[in-house]
Amino acid sequence: MTIRLGLVGLGKIARDQHLPAIAATEGIELTAIASRNAGLPDLPYFHDVDALLASDTAVDAISLCTPPQGRFEQALAALAAGKHLMLEKPPGMSVAEVEALGRMALDKGLTIFATWHSREAAGVEPARAFLADKTIRSVRIDWKEDVRHWHPGQQWIWEPGGLGVFDPGINALSIVTRILPEPMHLVASTLDFPENRHAPIAASLAFRTMSGAPVEAEFDWRQTGPQTWDIRVATDGGELVLSHGGSRLAIDGVQRMAEPDREYRNLYRRFVELVGTGGSDFDLSPLIHVADAFLLGQRRVTDAFHD
Amino acid sequence: MTIRLGLVGLGKIARDQHLPAIAATEGIELTAIASRNAGLPDLPYFHDVDALLASDTAVDAISLCTPPQGRFEQALAALAAGKHLMLEKPPGMSVAEVEALGRMALDKGLTIFATWHSREAAGVEPARAFLADKTIRSVRIDWKEDVRHWHPGQQWIWEPGGLGVFDPGINALSIVTRILPEPMHLVASTLDFPENRHAPIAASLAFRTMSGAPVEAEFDWRQTGPQTWDIRVATDGGELVLSHGGSRLAIDGVQRMAEPDREYRNLYRRFVELVGTGGSDFDLSPLIHVADAFLLGQRRVTDAFHD
């Protein structure tokens, strides 16, 4: 049975990623759009999720790709109406609100999928398999990109809940928490805030794994020229390098794979599976690490940022 | 069988609260002390928890009342050695590290007790019972005290992980999360940082319950004169006031109880029960709300603070 999907939010990520991924995925079809600004030709259109849910247009599931601020009320409305739920990353603007949604979905027997698209990059599962029986010696994460290129004019990323440089950085954390064979926790955090912004533009983080290996991360939103999304893991069985955001994997310098981006297609295929089996996928550890980074963060003030 | 307890940390909270509470509790006895600075007459003394665990002095359980920074390694050592574990509040300096400890204790079949002493105040359980079938209309928390009186010369409270004004504020959050009949989540946070400190001296928080009732909290460490630790809950069945940190309860202005402080005795009695039944008590929601408050916090800089 095909899942009838209502897509809420029709911004950049929805147009760039969600629409083509939904169109390419069997078992799910786009049935309605809710967005404050725009609809699509030949599709029922609503101003917001409440209007969609109150309408005659039947949907089985809701996919939220609005900014994280305000997403809680939309998610709550979807679950209250008995709809399965898929959440863009980050799944909300606070840990507590997302935990509450997870409990509610569980209580109501609905699927909830807190997506982390970077975990679907081609190199991630092979990296996880390689590391499963290794001893981790150290991890180094460099996640450096140009915010002006990737978030042109998006003000919500600088507001509370928008996460600043952790909006991309949480992608790196979602990969690392998947591939490492043991949990890690933060021990030190330095955050650079532009003097005119309430969110950090750069962050320097030091974690430790349970067995004590250092995990260092450098996030920076001021990178022009080549962009860097690399994770290096030194182990007793060689050095693993995940680059290009996880789509390329090399071990001891030998390229193991380099595949085109299918992250969002994988997400929607997984959502169809989860709804079919009555399961959920709801790992908040990347968001928890970000909250910890703010909790423990030493704050430095840096140059003003202007779009 | 009496639990042989090793107490780690012999600072203000250990001397003021833990030692008398342990002495007054059946089923547990203080067997050893680990502390960098001081021991007690007639008790085996060790410089740190590792030395205690490596010694001939047998203990069944460890109670940690060191500052949260560095407590993870102590907790890990205790669990690795097969000891039951009791943690002062806050249970650690990050959410992720405490979650990792919880999973480890569960895996090893050991008791872990993340204590929230304010939940043991006399009015808390009666308040919880009163609110269980009520509709919450609004909640107001005022938690205002004089840091110079309560934390004389303690520098760790101002360091990352020391939480600043959330060190007392988390007590209020531990009560509210216990007595309200549904979860809440943060929607806005303002934090006041002294210009010479890395932790807030005041905080203004706005939460919502799942059904949308506002929960407002004002934390301030600059209160001289009378101290304020009050929680007011407006419901469809009357107004509840928990004051004096939870030890006094009034409903619609009628005093229901006012009992002396037995918080730490209750904690140790509960720990004895948990060890006896093989259970754990491990609710991180107060710490998660604090992490969320930093994650979403709008930061203001205020006057320098000097002890």
From TrEMBL, chains A, B:
Protein name: D-galactose 1-dehydrogenase
Species assigned in the record: Pseudaminobacter soli
InterPro entries from the UniProt entry: Gfo/Idh/MocA-like_OxRdtase_N, Gfo/Idh/MocA_oxidrdct_glycsds, NAD(P)-bd_dom_sf
Pfam families named among the record's database cross-references: GFO_IDH_MocA (PF01408)
GO molecular function: nucleotide binding
SUPFAM superfamilies: NAD(P)-binding Rossmann-fold domains
Domain (Gfo/Idh/MocA-like oxidoreductase N-terminal) ranges: 3-113
PANTHER family the UniProt entry points to: BCDNA.GH03377 (PTHR43818), DEHYDROGENASE (PTHR43818:SF7)
